[in-house]
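Inverse folding, one chain.
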């Protein structure tokens, strides 16, 4: 900023909101996305995004609706341009990774160009853990909090390093499921979280896109542990979706397997500081210990 006043910041995705909050910039936030739910202190802020997707629908219905919207050239997530103009932000944090998870950054640039003033646009694009730290630094720089970011990154790296497991004859084979119907294996930073926790991701490589797969692949890969971390959903919704899977290939792949449910919405889907909390929970699953946001799943177990 060119003056001493506090910047007015708009965040258009949950990871950005969590970064700003973790850096101590909560007072700068003037609006957030409709999906931002953490920390609780952001609940009162105006919401600038919206989506026609009914998140209470089934996984298959949500997937079909997303595909329909994209085929029609309609946004999965939109932004209230008039409210954005009224708020006159100095900084807008958006993303360029996934048009399903947040408003597309091309739309944000278009809206920003039409404003009476020109806010700084920070577009997050991390696909790896190091990329998350880089994005955190970029957000911090825009908020004049660069020194705080360096201290935070050091602390987060230290927590990951402390997860290094005791000597094992081999690393457990871990498969992370990001969506159930259709089946998607998680990619991006998730394989690194699994590695930090002491496991070996057998479904994806670090930095890769999440990929659609067949349930037969689950059996072929012979995982020691299946981690179900649904994008955008917590433990209870995930357990209900697992219990609702029809008899067939999916049920055969999961029945009798070592299946753990993690709060993907909080700990794996969002490229922000809490991915380290996610790695700590993955380590707990490998050690066989339930924790808040982490539960073992058994077929038919009530949610």
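Residues assigned per position:
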């Amino acid at each position: 900023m060119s003056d001493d006043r506090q910047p007015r910041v708009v965040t258009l995705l949950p990871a950005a909101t969590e970064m700003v909050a973790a850096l101590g910039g909560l007072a700068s936030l003037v609006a957030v996305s409709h999906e931002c739910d953490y920390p609780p202190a952001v609940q009162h802020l105006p919401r600038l995004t919206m989506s026609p997707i009914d998140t209470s629908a089934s996984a298959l219905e949500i997937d079909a609706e997303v595909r329909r919207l994209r085929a029609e050239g309609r946004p999965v997530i939109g932004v209230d341009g008039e409210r954005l103009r009224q708020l006159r932000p100095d900084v807008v944090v958006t993303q360029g990774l996934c048009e399903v998870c947040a408003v597309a950054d091309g739309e944000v640039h278009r809206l920003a160009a039409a404003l009476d003033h020109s806010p700084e646009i920070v577009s997050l694009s991390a696909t790896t853990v190091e990329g998350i730290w880089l994005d955190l630094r970029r957000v911090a720089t825009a908020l004049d909090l660069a020194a705080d970011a360096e201290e935070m990154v050091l602390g987060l790296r230290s927590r990951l390093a402390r997860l290094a497991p005791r000597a094992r004859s081999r690393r457990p084979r871990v498969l992370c499921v990001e969506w159930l119907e259709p089946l998607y294996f998680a990619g991006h930073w998730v394989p690194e979280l699994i590695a930090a926790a002491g496991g070996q991701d057998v479904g994806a490589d670090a930095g890769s896109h999440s990929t659609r797969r067949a349930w037969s692949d689950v059996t072929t890969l012979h995982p020691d542990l299946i981690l179900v971390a649904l994008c955008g959903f917590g433990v209870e919704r995930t357990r209900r979706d697992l219990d609702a899977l029809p008899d067939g290939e999916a049920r055969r792949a999961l029945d009798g397997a070592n299946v753990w449910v993690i709060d993907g919405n909080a700990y794996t889907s969002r490229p922000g500081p809490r991915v380290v909390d996610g790695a700590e929970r993955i380590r707990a699953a490998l050690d066989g210990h339930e924790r808040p946001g982490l539960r073992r799943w058994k077929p038919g177990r009530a949610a």
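The mean pLDDT is 90. Residues 9-157 form a domain with the Rossmann fold fold (CATH 3.40.50.1980).
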